[in-house]
Amino acid sequence: MEKLIDSHISSSLKEYTFSDFPIPIERSRYDECREFVIKEMAALSEVKAIYSMGNVSAPGISDLDFLIVVSSSFKQLEALQSIFQNLPNDFQYIAFCHYPYVAFEETISHSLEILPLSNMKLVYGKDYELDRLEVSNGTHLSVLAELVLLFYPNLFLDTLLLKNIKVRKCIQQLNSMSFPIEFARKNGYNTPGFQIYLDKLKSLKSNCFIWSTEEVNLVVIQLMKFAIIQSYSLIDFILKGVLKGRDNAKSTYSIHLNAFFVNDYSAERSFEQSMKFFKRTKKTAKFLPYAFHDVFCNMINYERNIERELLVDKNFVNLDNRASLYEEYEDCLVRAKMKQMVPYPYIFRLIESSSLKKKIIYQAYSIFAV
Questions:
Q1: Is the pLDDT of residue 348 over 70?
Q2: What angle, 0 to 180 degrees and rounded to 10, lies between the N-to-C axes of helices 137-151 and 213-241?
Q3: Element at 103 (helix H, strand E)
Q4: In a designed cystine with 111, which of 29, 103, 139, 279 is the match (CB 3.0 to 4.6 A)?
Q5: How is the chain split into domains, by residue range?
C-alpha cells in the first residue's frame, strides 16, 4: 500500500504550498488563556457548566478545547462567540481553532454517545458527571464507524491532493487520528502500524521547533501518507468486526458526503478509484465498502433526510438506533440557533448541493459505481 500511495502522491516539497506554521508558545500562556476563557464564559448566566478537555501535549501546536453545558433555550450565542472572536492575539491562537463543544441539559445523558470526547475536567458550574459517564464498547464502535465515514482517509488524502498544507492544522488532524486508534484498541484491534504511527507523531510534536522548516514539512507529508494507510486499516477492522458485508448489493453513493459505497471494495482499489476520480473531475471523493452505507443510514432519519431518495436499501444493520440520538441533539441545536457551533460536519449540517456538484457526482457515479 505504501508503494501505491507513493506512486500517486509526491513527497517533493516544491509541489506543495505551506502555511500556518506553528508558533512557539510557553505552556504558562496556555494556563493563563484557559483561566481567562473560563472566567469569560462563566460570566454568561445561561452557561450551566464548563468542562476543560484534553491536555497540552505540544505547546505551540495544541489548542484548548472546552465543552459547555446549556439548555436548548440558550439566548447568549452572540456573547459567547464574541468571547472567542475578541481574544488577545496569542490567546486567540491558543483557544480559537474552533468554538467550544456544546452539550444540552435536555440530552446530557446521551452527550458522549455522539460527541467523542475524553479527558474532561469540570472547571465551572454544576457537575453533570460527564467525566464519569459509562460509554459501552458498542458505542465506541459506532462512533468509530461514523468518524471513518465522515473523515477517513480523506481528511489526509484531500489535503495532499489539493497540495495546500496548513502545517499546524495538519499536525492537529494527525493528532486526532490517535482517538480512532484508541477506540479500535479498546475493542481488541491493534496493528504494528498503529504504534509506529503514534511514535512518529510523538517525534513530530517533540521536534517541531527543533527541526528545520523543511524537515517539519517533509515529515508532515510523509506522516499524512502513513495516516492514509492506518485509515484503511481501520476500515478493514470495522468491515470485518462490526458490519456485515453486502456482496450482492448494488453500489450507491451520497451526494453530500462525496462518498461512494461500493460492493467490490479493497483498500488498494478504493485508493486508486479516488485518484482516478480526482484526475477526471479535479474533485475529491472517497470509496467505502457498501456496508458503510448502513452507518450512514443509522445516522439519519428517513423522514427528514435530504438524501432519502437515494436510500433504497432499508434492510441495514441497527447500530444502537443512532439516528434518534442525532435527531435529538440537532433539535436542541436548532432551538438554541447553535448549529454553527458544531466543530465537525455531522450529517445534519450538510446543506443542499449545487446543481453543478450534483452533475459531477452523477456523472462520476456512471463511471465508477456500477
A1: no
A2: 130
A3: strand 101-104
A4: 103
A5: 27-132
